[in-house]
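We now fix the convention by which a protein and its fold are recorded. Here is one such record, which you should read through line by line:

>
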Amino acid sequence: MKQLFIYSMIALFTVVSCTTPKEKTTSKDADYTQFVDPFIGTAFTGHTFPGATYPLGMVQPGPETGNFSWDYCAGYVYGDSTITGFSQTRLNGTGVADLGDLLMQPFSGDKRNNLHSKYDLMSEEATPGYYAVYLTDNDVKVEITATPHVAFHKYTFNKNKSANILADFQSGLVWSKEHIYQHILANEVNFEDDKTISGYTKRRQWVEREYYFVIEFDKPIISKEELAKQDSREKAPRYILTFDIQDNDELNMKVALSSTSIEGAKANMAAEVSDWDFKSVHENAVKEWNRYLSRIHVEGTDEQKVNFYTAMYHLYIQPNNIADVDGKYVGPNRKVSQSTDGKHYSTLSQWDTFRAAFPMYTLLSPELVPEMVNSMLDFSEQQGHLPIWGLWGQETYTMIGNHSVPMIVDAYLKSFEGFDNERAYNEIKKSIVTSTHPKSNWDLYDKYGYYPYDLVKLESVSRVMECGFDDYATALMAKAMGNDEDFEFFNKRSHYYKNVYDKESKAVRPKDSKGNFISPFDPYELAHADSQIGGHYTEGNARQYTWHVLQDIPGLIDLMGGKDKAGVILDSLFYTTKETTGTLSDVTGLIGQYAHGNEPSHHVTYIYPYLDRPKEAQKLIRQICTDFYKAQPDGLIGNDDCGQMSAWFLFSSLGFYPLDPVSGEYVIGAPQVPEATIPLANGKRFSMKAENLSVNNLYVDRIELNGEAYDKKTISYKDIMNGADLVFYMTDNDIE
C-alpha cells in the first residue's frame, strides 16, 4: 500500500473526512489488512517501521535506511534515499535503539565498496505480513514475509548478473557509530553445508541478550568471501555470499531465531516454514492479521478506516512471544526455562501500555491476557521483581514505577482466569515493598511519604506520582482478596502525591528530606533522567505531571480547591501561551503545555468530565485525533510506544477512555467514527453508533445505552462485556 500521491490527497481531504459519504460497510469477512498502512508513523517521531510482521511475533524483518541516532530507533525513516539492508528484528515506536539483527543486503553483479542502494520509491510496498521494494543500484527486487519465528525473504536478481548477498553479522541498531564496533560481545557463524548457516550472537545495547539463528537458502552458495574488519573491536564477520541460482532469477532465504539454541531455531523453522512456499506463508500472515483486525468492525470513510485499522495493527506488533514452539525461552536468569503456558511475552513497554493498550487487549483479545500475566510472573520469579520494561526477556530498567502491577490487577479485577491469583499478588507485593533494583528505594518512600530530591537525585516527583498508582492498584487487589491490612498500607501510599503538591505554585514540586519545597522552581522546565539534563520529572515537567493522579481525580480536584479552581488550572495547561523551558524529543504534540506525544498526558483531556465540562474534553479529543493522527508517514505526533499511542486513538475513536486503567470504568468522551461493533468472545456484541457525526457535529448532545437515556460520566467494562448498544447523538452545540 503505497503511492506517493495518496498521502497528499489524504492530507487534502482530512478536514472533510467526517462529511464525505460512507464507504462500503466493513463486514466480518472483509480483508481488513487493506485498510492498514504500515508507513504511517515512519517519519517524524513515530518510530514505526514498514517491515513484514506476524501478530505478536518474535521477528519483524524489513528495511533499514539509517542507524546511529534517536531518529533511527526503528532503523527506518520514510523518504530516505538509500536502503542499507534488511534485518530480522525491530522495535515498534520506541525511543531507544536495539535489535536490527542479522542484516542482509542482496545485489546483482560485481561487489562494490558500498552496497547501500537507492530504491524505487514507487515500488516500495508494505501491508501486514509483507514488504517489497526494488533496489535500483543493486538491481534486485526484494520481497519479505514472516511467521512468528521465521523471516522469509525472496530476492529476484538480474538473471544476466551474479546473485550475491552481503551477510552482515556485526550490524545492529545502536545509539552511535562507535557502538557498532563493540555491541557484539560474542559470535559464532557455522556454514553447515552449501545451503545452511547457523550461529549464535551475544550483544549489548539497550539490554544484554543472546540469540541463536539458522539461515537456509533454496539455492547453493558457490563462494563466500569474508570481508576485512572495519575496526579491531569487531567480534562478528561480514561475508559476501555468491549463489548458483541455476538458470533462475529467484533466491529464497529463511531466517529462524531462538533465544535458547540453534536446535530451537531449527525446530521453530521446521514447525512454521517447512517448505519454500512464499505465497502460502504470506497468506497465513494475512489470515492471522485479519483474525485480530476483525475484532472491531468499523464503518466510515476509507481514511477513517485506514487510521483506525493501522492503529490496531500497531497494537498487535507486540508484545513479542520469545518462547520457542515448545515453550522454552531464556529469561532474566539467563537459563533455558519452560514457560507456564507455552508463551513468554516480552517487549510489553509497561510504562506506556498499562494506560490504554493493555485495557484494550482485555476487550479485544482476552485470550492473550492470562498469557501476558503468566509471562510477567515467570519473569518476576527469576528477576526478583515484576518487569519494568522488559526486552527479549531481560530488564532494561527504563522508565519508573512498576506498571506490570496495574496490568495484573486489571486482569484480576476483571475476573480473568488462567493464572494463580495468590502467586500474582505475592509477586506484586514483593515488587513494590522490596528494594531489589536501582529505582525502588522503598525505605525512603515509606519514611518520608515521598522521594526527597536531596536523597533521590533524579525523577523524585514523577516517581511519587507513578508509584502512587501502583500502590492504589495493589490496594484494590488486596481488598478484593480480603487482606485488609495490606489494603490500608497501600491505600495510604496511594495518596502520597498530596505530599508533593504545592498550593502556592499549584503544581507537584520537589521536596527535600527536611520538608522544604525546592526553590527557585520553574514548573515549565522539562526533565528527563535518561538524558544529560536530568531533573525531577520523567520526560515532562511539573505542569504535566501535576495531573498524573489517575487513581484519585476527585481528591486532586479537592486539593486544588474545588472544580472551579481546578478548572482554571486545567485550562491553563491547555491554553497557556507560555512555552516549556528547554526541549525534549519525547515531549511533542503540544497543546499549550499538554503533550500528547508522551504518555503522562494521555488521560488529562478526560479529566474535564469530572469538572462537569464534558464538551471541553470533546473539543480537545477532536483536535487531537485530527491534528496528531494522520494517514501519512509523519502522521503520528510522538513515538507509538509499542501501541500505546495507537490505543489512545482506538479508545477515543470509540467514544471513551480508561483514565483509571484498573477501575473497569471508561470515561466518556466523543466518538470519532460513525459506527463500530465489537464481537465479544462470550458470543455477545458491543456496538457504538454516532448519529449525525460530522466536522461540525463534534459534541455529544445526549447518549443512550440499550435504548435508555444515559447520563453517567463512565461506561463500565461489565456493561460492554454484557453486550450493549451505545448511541451518541452528536451536535455542533458547544454550550455546557
Remarks:
- The CA atoms of residues 704 and 710 lie 5 Å apart.
